[in-house]
Amino acid sequence: MSGPVRTVLGTCHHDCPDSCGWVVTVEGERAVRLRGNPDHPYSRGELCPKVNRLLDRVYSPDRVLTPLERTGAKGEGRFRPVSWDDALARIAGEWTERIARHGGETLLGYFDAGTQGLIQMTSLDRRLFAVLGASQHDATICGSTARHGVTLTNGTGLGADPMDIVHSRFIVLWGTNTRLTNRHLWPFIEQARAAGATVVVVDPLRTITADGADWFIQPLPGTDTALMLAMMHVLIAEDLVDRAWVDAHTLGYDELAALVAGWSPQRASAICGVPDEEIERFARAYGTARPAMIRTLIGAEHHEHGGELFRTMAVLPALVGAWRDRGGGLIRSSGTWTEEALIDTDLPPGAGRWETRHLNMAQLGRVLTDPDLAPPVTALYVWNANPAVTAPAAELTRRGLARDDLFTVVHEQFLTDTARYADLVLPATTQLEHLDVVPAWGHLYLGWNEPAIAPVGEARSNTEVFRSLAAALGRTEPWLYDSDEELIAQRLDLGHERMQGITLDSLRAAGFQRLAVADPLLPYAEGNFPTPSGRVEFVSAAAAAAGLDPLPDYRPAREGPGGDAELLGRYPLQLLTPKTHPGFLNGTYSVSPRHAPPGGPFVELDPTDAAARGIEEGRPVVVHNDRASLQLVARFSGRVRPGVVAIPFGWWQEQHPDGRTANALTNDELADIGGGVAFSDTLVEVRPA
Ligand SMILES: Nc1nc2c(c(=O)[nH]1)N[C@H]1C(S)=C(S)[C@@H](COP(=O)(O)OP(=O)(O)OC[C@H]3O[C@@H](n4cnc5c(=O)[nH]c(N)nc54)[C@H](O)[C@@H]3O)O[C@H]1N2
Ligand SMILES: Nc1nc2c(c(=O)[nH]1)N[C@H]1C(S)=C(S)[C@@H](COP(=O)(O)OP(=O)(O)OC[C@H]3O[C@@H](n4cnc5c(=O)[nH]c(N)nc54)[C@H](O)[C@@H]3O)O[C@H]1N2
Ligand code: SF4
Ligand SMILES: [Mo]
């Protein structure tokens, strides 16, 4: 059907730092074209291999378009369509009965950033779950440990403007795979490089970003803190410290100097596996180039001592005075700039306080299988997430999801591995079908997302479902029914200095607007860190209070080099389960036609490790530890160093030969701070199948 043609401005919803602006062409009722918005100053008209074909996803024949009720066993994937009224009535009945029996905390809402929009990620859900007295979901799986780590040192997670990287002359991409995960930053890096910048990648994997860098430094996973302490040793020993800036704006330099005196490059080299001479060269280069920028995201946080790693990283720019310069300092998530300009209206007056227990999303498997958890979680509501694939220790998650006494509802666009365990699946809208505002974490633009088309089939947006649930439960609080526009207006603090010049109308008309922060943004050139002392805290009372040492220090992970000797004896290889494929976004798109690479999942090994085990390229192997075993094909890609293996993450059970995914093997111990999880401190052994 055709009809009048119009274009609608939107913003990508994905859990991705780039938050690209887009333009949808709509003919009559149907979206016929989706392109990057050429006017967007950061994404500049380009989308990505995931989203270029988003319309195929919107109109996919495999999309869930009606509520579905389970007819087979949990996990089997057999369902029949039911009406929204029946589905909502059943949910209301089950929740009411279970809450009456166990108390409100028996209900748990679980979400991630399937959409990271301001209201469709989390808004009304909090109000509804608060009035029901449900357990609270701690959103820890991504970024929390990194943010808390940097905050120990700097008092804030705020950093430099990512686009200012064009002014950098020494760029360290530390534990981030920019060309894959943050691809629109790469042209800015190339621009800096054309002007003479050196690009260094520090990563245990030779990623595509490492391939594109000038210098690739490959430590063993989880050992960067030792490397950084040795860099500090060299910076201090060779007088490359910016003493004036350090004296004016930091706390604890003398203590730090005394500590790192013991961290010779030789000592660090024995831990991290980077030659001592290379550590010296790296420190010298970092200490002499200006402006020097460290760009990181979250890859290095998924470790037992991930918080310590980020806390230590934040010391480096202070030591060399990098914050003085435009293009210098540290960039982590720029989302904090927006977060601080939001109003916390989650719980309006009259809702009371939501003071129930917190359950960590990173340990969903434990939560669902813990016999001592009182009350047990007997009602689970999942949206924006596919934890069967994305949470660690996946076999435990599956065991929990398979519990007969657990009533599970999954609100989804597709029948994911998690949805297969649901009693009811509810059809979700896509970003083309609902209103939102998208705060970015890779640049400083707020994005507007105008719905381009009506919901497909019977799909409902996340907010609409929470309104529907409130009605089905007979709730009368008016604020459980606020409209999407009201929710946006309540959340954006338009009176905040960072929102000057932004109104809902201006944002809607333009499609994006830069936060009203200084341009150029030099947040800490003159110090003024929001720590208790106002300085960068090398010595941190907050760290001590959080159970860490007052000074940064390296500690080995239990599942890593220098860790549990008995475990290392049985499982000597470190496993990484990274985001690898340009067509995937975590577990999204892995079953979409034309997104998944041919051949399916595999494990990458170094040929020397393979030879020692009689493993040949292309042959089936078994990767195993005490949590699970997985059959995969061996690949010698040259991307891992001896002692390390990698299984790309994102495939679902149907693509794995034995139905178990990469996360079946991963560690669900928590990181030191921020509640994150140690996915990447996982030991395994590999043998021919
Ligand atoms: N194409 C694509 N883009 C994505 C995603 C995706 O799945 N696919 N996911 C999105 C999401 S949710 C996020 S959070 C971001 C993440 O963005 P990034 O943080 O850039 O991505 P990751 O792949 O999680 O981790 C980056 C790198 O950290 C490395 N790493 C692991 N352990 C260590 C360590 O101990 N030290 C060091 N130095 N490096 C380490 C890994 O080898 C990996 O190459 O990307 C987003 N963008
Ligand atoms: N082994 C290993 N595990 C990891 C990581 C890793 O690097 N390695 N990375 C971790 C990280 S950083 C992250 S962020 C997590 C990601 O974990 P998840 O967020 O669980 O990842 P996705 O598989 O992308 O699942 C998001 C789901 O939300 C759905 N969705 C999208 N939009 C909407 C909507 O509007 N409404 C509703 N109801 N649903 C919607 C999508 O269809 C999709 O199935 O994975 C973590 N797990
Ligand atoms: S997934 Fe990331 S890179 Fe791709 S369009 Fe969305 S925001 Fe842009
Ligand atoms: Mo993430």
Structure description:
- With 689 residues, the chain is an alpha/beta fold.
- It has three domains: 68-140 and 358-436 and 456-485, Rossmann fold (3-Layer(aba) Sandwich); 144-332 and 526-537, Dimethylsulfoxide Reductase, domain 2 (3-Layer(aba) Sandwich), CATH 3.40.228; 565-688, Barwin-like endoglucanases (Beta Barrel), CATH 2.40.40.20.
- It has 24 helices and 27 strands.
- The protein has a six-stranded mixed beta sheet with strand order 5-4-17-16-15-6, with helices on one face. A six-stranded mixed beta sheet has the order 23-25-24-27-22-26. The chain has a five-stranded parallel beta sheet with strand order 10-9-8-12-13, sandwiched between helices.
- Strand 2 and strand 3 (30-36) form a beta hairpin.
- Helix 4 packs across helix 13 (306-313), helix 8 runs antiparallel to helix 11 (265-272) and helix 8 crosses helix 12 (276-288).
- The longest helix is centred in the first third of the chain and has 19 residues, at 84-102.
- The model has no long low-confidence stretch (mean pLDDT 96).
- Bound molecules: ligand MGD (2 copies), iron/sulfur cluster and molybdenum atom.
- The site of iron/sulfur cluster has 13 residues, from loops.
